[in-house]
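Model it.
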Amino acid sequence: MHLGVIITDARADMNYAIWSILYAALLLLGMVAAGEIGRRMATRRAERAADAGGYGIGIVDSAVFALLGLIIAFTFSGAVTRFDARRQLIVQETNSIGTAYLRLDLLPSQSQPALRQTFRRYVDSRLQVYRYLPDLVHARAELENNKRLQAEIWTLTLLAARDAQAATMLLVPALNEMFDIATTRTLSALVHPPPIIFAMLCGLAVIASALAGYGMARSTSSAWLHLVAFAVATSFAFYVIIDMEFPRLGLIRVDAFDQALVDLRASMD
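Modeled.
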């Protein structure tokens, strides 16, 4: 990879990390502001009305907080599941490529060099796709190169099949698996919760903070510590969820698992 590409990728990763932190910070500020607004509303209501109590308010508060906790739990659980699935897909692709590469030994010796060289180019291309991220233009162009190399591997395998049909009966299924897992990895990177889920999470967090501020206004102290702690905990959970949903861009990454594919490529030399 050229130095310019490395610098561009590093800057893009940094930009994404900054934006993720900024979104979490905006949620934090929004929750604190909503809590303060709720507290002031409760204070004004208490000054205007002799009865500052609110019958049934606790039921509404509990329902909103329960819904917020449920959304956070499900969203976080989904993010963790998808994060782990993406790591497992890297291992599966490495194993499938390694199996197919080993089965090239079953082909006639004169057919092996071209296929082995194409395999090396293919692994290099697969690694390059994820090194380009978050540069989607270059990543998509490299995905097209993946497809061309797959077609080239398939064509060379069919040509070799004329001289070793029995051997290709073992090689062809391995190639199919290798190609399929590449498609699965590409599609898995696109699987995320609908944006409305994140909007709902943020909206519920702000509403819950306002209700918390309203409820804590009846306390003798301002209870700012509790309100800020609630906002910090919720916004941090939101940041972690976002970061895990895009493990190639932020601080929580799956790049370490790419080493398995790098080691496989090294073993091909």
